[in-house]
Here is the input.
Amino acid sequence: MLLNFMSSVSIVVVNKLVMDKYGFHFAVTLTAFHLWSTFFLLLLTAKCGVFEIKRLPVRDVAKLAAGTMGFICLTNLSLQHNSVGFYQVMKVMTTPTVVIIEALLYQKYLENRLKLSLLPVCLGVILTTVTDFRLNLTGTIYAVAGVIVTSFYQIWSGTLQRSLDCNALQLQTYVAPLAALFILPLMPLLDQYDMNDLHSIWYYNLNVQNGAVIALTGFFGFLVNVSIFLVIGRSSAVSYNILGHCKTVVVLMSDFLLFGRPKSFKSSFGIVLTLVGVFWYTSLKLEKARVEKEARERAPSPKSVDDDSLTRHEEKIDVRSGSREE
Here is the structure.
């Protein structure tokens, strides 16, 4: 969770710098670069013995790869066409969307007290960002589509690791290159690739400075993609979203410091309210985990139950017939 926190905050800040300060307005191409960076760095880590590549059914992984493509692509497009504030408002809506999808499609219901703890989280982020709305139709469409796709992506990330019996690195080794291939047809459609246009990617002034920052986004993209699977595989999609809201607060603080966002009482109160909700939800989850652990420790193991049943059965035979014992 610490790895995901640090890398996710870093990639939002660095991506925004690449798009705004260095003028690289090609979000889909940047997404493809992040995916290929993830794949090649995974091959390097596997070569170093960090993990062993496992054969997985491509058909099963393809669904998650499509979700990965949509998740990263729509997130980058939303960040490109919206302010950081509206971008974060729409990201926070992923949490209730995950809860609704899991209830409707997977019959997985969240406890009422956990649902209640989500309210200050959502309200806090909305309060923090509501003063920064600069709505536009294109950006809103990308943001709404991103919420839906991201919700399914997060749910599938956890279920697929368990169903295929693989770890996060093994799964991401297949997902990243497939998602990068899926995104190829979208690059000339959503980014400017016209050779006759001076604002196209072919005329971008790539130099050592902006090239190094773009390369840094690829490294952070690798860390984000891997850590998402690690967190969701060991917790849940909702827990991952709560971690996301902690990241939201830090990203918004960076917005104040780096991008000149005006400070206000409403924004500050929203940050505090978000943190209250995060701590509340975390304490409830820890309490629930402690109760479940104590219940497992008190419950007899299946083997001991079988042994007790056998002993009682033998005692009954001894009482009813001594000849059976002989």
Notes: Residues 10 and 220 are 7 Å apart (CA to CA). Residues 313-317, 319-326 have pLDDT under 50 and may be disordered. The chain has one domain: 2-325. The radius of gyration is 25 Å.
